[in-house]
Design a protein that fits this description.
The chain is of the alpha/beta class and 337 residues long. Helix content is 39%, strand content 18%. The protein is globular, with a radius of gyration of 19 Å. The chain binds UDP-4-deoxy-4-formamido-beta-L-arabinopyranose.
C-alpha cells in the first residue's frame, strides 16, 4: 500500500499534516525523536480520524534507525518536517542547527535513495528570503540573515542539486510564512517548549494569564500602523498545502519551490485586535523596542501555489486566533506528557 513517511510527525505542523493525510486515506508512517514534542499529539490525531499512523521514535540523525523504518514499510513519499526552527536559538547555537537540519536532510536523502524513494515534500520557510522586498515571489533572490534561515536555504540548494543529479527525483520545497491556529476541535495545536518566541502563542498564553503582558516589538516601521506586518496562515490550510504539493509531485519533475501563505499581511496591532475579539476581553500589551533581525513586512506572493497546486487558504485571521484560543483554553499547559 503506498505509504507516506512524515518526519517531525508529532510536532505542531507535523500532527496537522498527519491528520490531513489520514483523513485523505493515506497510509502514514510517523517518525519523530520527541525532543520538542509529545506523542500525545498523535494519539489525539488517531481519536480525531479513527485511523492510526505507525509511529517510530527515531531521529533523522540516526541513519540505522531510519533504515529500519524504510525496511519495515513500503514508503513511496516522504514529508520532511523534522528540524530545529527557533531563530534566536540558532544565533546562540548555530552548530546544532547545521548538524540537525543539514545532517538530518543528508541522512534522509541517502536512505530514501537506498530504498528507491524519490518523492519528497520539504518544510522550508519564508525566512530564506531574508530582508528582500515584500511581497515575496519564488523567483526572488534568497538571502537568509540568521543561522536557522541559512540552514533552510542551504537545504533548498541541497535538494535542488540532488534533483539535478537524477531525473527520478520529485521534490517540493514549501516556504511557510507564519503558521498559526489549531485544528477546530481544539485537541491538537502549538505546544511551544518554554516561553514562546512567536507572536500568536505568546498572545494566547498572555490572555490565559501565563504572562503579564505582550510587548509589541516596535511601532515605528514603515507599515500601515508602524508595527510589523506578516502573512499568517492557518495551520490547517498549511497542512492542506502539503497534500496539494504531494499531488503536484505527479506532474512536476525535479525540484520546485512554492510559497504557502495567505497573500494577506496583518500587522501586530491587527493581530492583537483579532485576538481580543476571539478572547472577548482586552489583552495587556505595551509597545517596546524593535526586535533585532525583524523585517518590517513579509507577505507571500501566492500566485504560483494558487495556480500550480490549485490551493488557496480558506481561513481568516479571525479563524486562526479563534481556533488557537480554543486550543489554549482546552490545553492550558499544552500536552501534559
Ligand atoms: C511576528 C511579528 C514581531 C512576538 C518567525 C521565524 C520564521 C517562522 C515564523 C519558522 C513580528 C512581532 C512577536 C512578540 C511582537 N518560523 N512580535 N511581540 O519573526 O515573523 O517569523 O516565526 O519557520 O522563520 O522567523 O514570527 O511570530 O516571532 O513575529 O511584537 O512577543 O510579531 O516583531 O513583527 P516571525 P513572530
Amino acid at each position: 500500500m503506498p505509504t507516506t513517511l512524515v518526519t517531525g510527525a508529532t510536532g505542531y505542523i507535523g500532527s496537522h499534516v498527519v491528520l490531513a493525510l489520514l483523513e485523505a486515506g493515506h497510509e502514514v508512517v510517523a517518525v519523530d525523536d520527541l525532543s520538542n514534542s509529545s506523542p500525545e499529539s498523535l494519539r489525539r490525531v488517531s481519536q480525531l480520524t479513527g485511523r492510526e499512523a505507525a509511529f517510530h521514535e527515531v531521529s533523522v540523525l540516526d541513519r540505522v534507525g531510519l533504515t529500519k523504518v524504510f525496511a519495515s514499510h513500503e514508503i513511496d513519499t516522504v514529508v520532511h518536517l523534522a528540524g530545529l526552527k527557533a531563530v534566536g536559538d540558532s544565533v546562540a547555537d548555530p552548530l546544532s542547527y547545521y548538524e540537525v537540519n543539514l545532517g538530518g536532510s543528508m541522512n534522509l536523502v541517502r536512505v530514501m535513495a537506498e530504498y528507491g524513494v524519490f518523492r519528497l515534500v520539504f518544510s522550508s520557510s519564508a525566512t530564506v528570503y531574508g530582508e528582500g522586498i515584500s511581497p515575496f515571489a519564488e523567483t526572488d533572490g534568497l538571502g537568509a540573515v540568521n543561522p536557522y534561515g541559512r540552514t533552510k536555504e542551504i537545504q533548498e540548494y541541497l535538494f535542488g542539486d540532488v534533483a539535478a543529479s537524477g531525473s527520478q527525483w520529485r521534490i517540493a520545497l514549501l516556504r511557510y510564512f507564519n503558521p498559526v491556529g489549531a485544528h477546530v476541535s481544539g485537541r491538537i495545536g502549538e505546544d511551544p517548549v518554554g516561553k514562546p518566541n512567536n507572536l500568536v502563542p505568546f498572545v494566547m498564553q498572555t490572555a490565559a494569564g501565563r504572562h503579564e503582558q505582550v510587548t509589541i516589538h516596535g511601532d515605528d516601521y514603515a507599515t500601515i500602523d508602524g508595527t510589523g506586518v506578516r502573512d499568517y496562515i492557518h495551520v490547517v490550510d498549511l497542512a492542506a498545502g502539503h497534500l496539494a504539493a504531494l499531488g503536484a509531485l505527479d506532474t512536476h519533475v525535479g525540484c520546485r519551490a512554492w510559497n504557502l501563505g495567505s497573500g494577506v499581511g496583518s500587522s501586530v496591532k491587527e493581530v492583537m485586535a483579532a485576538a481580543e475579539r476571539a478572547v472577548g476581553q482586552p489583552i495587556p500589551h505595551q509597545v517596546g523596542p524593535r526586535r533585532p533581525g525583524d523585517v518590517a513586512e513579509a507577505v507571500a506572493d501566492v500566485s504560483r501555489a494558487n495556480d500550480e497546486l490549485a490551493w488557496t487558504t480558506q481561513r481568516t485571521l479571525d479563524d486562526m486566533v479563534t481556533d488557537h484560543w480554543r486550543w489554549q483554553q482546552s490545553n492550558p499547559q499544552g500536552y501534559t506528557d
